[in-house]
Structure formats: structure tokens, C-alpha cells
Design a protein that fits this description.
This protein is of the alpha/beta class. The chain has a single domain, classed as Aldolase class I (TIM Barrel, Alpha-Beta Barrel). The protein is built from 9 helices and 8 strands. Strands 1-2-3-4-5-6-7-8 form an 8-stranded parallel β-barrel, surrounded by 4 helices. The radius of gyration is 16 Å and the shape is globular.
Length: about 190
């Protein structure tokens, strides 16, 4: 049973995801800083216990606001000493694209592995070719920790992704048409099968 891992870049979208009860919410604010919203974000974990809050690329901020987790790209993770990552008092997710990166992420203490891009994506510039469903399936089978599928996943190609047995499915652009909690809840039901 796959769960929605919503990735948002604004407070407005984050609040909508919280109202819908998304299971995983990653704050990936590239256009504006999170710091001005620190007090509000710190209230979310106790106020919305169904949603696990993940902060993108900022381990210190994630710890400060009591987030459930932090998600780091390979380059971002290298800014920290491996021992610091292993000691982090939260769930650490790390993006990976191949076996060497997955092994490194596990050595850093990752409790979640981001895998992708599964399909072509326009969300950000990527240097890795789409990995595809079969590589995702193999990664899920071999991973000792839950896998987050990311990259180009839409309601139209969701079925094969869910069938791999992946734990979480990250969506960014595909969530834009969803403007209310009810429609998001319908999408989450489709993921659970």
C-alpha cells in the first residue's frame, strides 16, 4: 500500500495538504525561505498528527521545528559529517539514483531512500535519465528501508508505480490541479488500492 508523499513550495499549498491529511508532507521552498514561518511550522506536528512533516535540505531547521524527518540530496548530505547524520533525532531521507548512492545513503543512516526520477520530470533539472518501473521494482525489493518513488509520477501513470510495492509516492507538479481536501483524499485512496 503506497502513501502520498506531497512536496510543496508554498505555505498555502502546505496548509491545504495538512487539511487533507496527507500522510507525508515535504516542505521544499526554493523560491522563499522557511525561516519566517518557523513558529507556525513548529505547531504543525502536534496539531496535525496524521501528517509526517519533512523538511527539505535543512537538517537544523527540521530539528528546530520538531519535524518528523529531513530529506537531503546527495550534495546536501555531503555538507554534514556522516556521524552527524547518523545522530540526527529524526527520520533521514536521502535522494539516490544508483546503487553506489543508495549504499552511501544507508551508511549515512538514511531511514528512507528517495529513488528517481522514475519518469521524465520538468520539476527540476536532473542529470540522471529516467529510471523506469523495473529499476524501481528492483530497488524496492533490495532496499532494507522504505523507498520513496519520485519524478514524473502522475495520476495517469500511478498504477504501475503502486504495483512495485513502493512505500511512498512523491508528487509535486501532479498535485497542482488538486485545490481542495476532498479531491486530495480521492487521490490518496487511489494510491492505497
Amino acid at each position: 500500500m503506497a502513501e502520498l508523499y506531497a512536496i510543496v513550495g508554498t505555505m498555502e499549498r502546505a496548509r491545504l495538504m495538512l487539511a487533507a491529511g496527507v500522510p507525508y508532507l515535504q516542505l521544499r521552498f526554493k523560491a522563499s525561505p522557511l525561516a519566517p514561518h518557523r513558529a507556525e511550522i513548529a505547531e504543525w506536528t502536534p496539531r496535525y498528527p496524521r501528517t509526517r512533516l519533512i523538511i527539505n535540505d535543512d537538517l537544523a531547521f527540521a530539528i528546530a521545528v520538531g519535524a518528523w524527518g529531513a530529506h537531503l540530496g546527495q550534495e546536501d548530505a555531503m555538507r554534514y559529517a556522516p556521524a552527524e547524520l547518523r545522530r540526527a533525532p529524526l527520520m533521514l531521507g536521502v535522494s539516490t539514483h544508483d546503487e553506489a548512492e543508495r549504499a552511501r545513503a544507508l551508511d549515512w543512516g538514511a531511514k528512507l531512500i528517495g529513488f528517481g526520477p522514475v519518469f521524465a520530470t520538468a520539476t527540476k533539472a536532473v542529470t540522471h535519465a529516467p529510471q523506469g518501473i523495473e529499476r524501481l521494482r528492483e530497488t524496492v525489493r533490495r532496499s532494507p528501508v522504505p523507498v520513496i518513488a519520485i519524478g514524473g509520477i502522475t495520476p495517469e501513470n500511478l498504477g504501475p508505480v503502486v504495483e512495485t510495492g513502493v512505500a511512498m509516492i512523491a508528487m509535486i507538479t501532479a498535485l497542482e490541479p488538486y485545490r481542495d481536501a476532498a479531491s486530495l483524499q480521492g487521490l490518496m485512496q487511489a494510491m492505497r488500492g
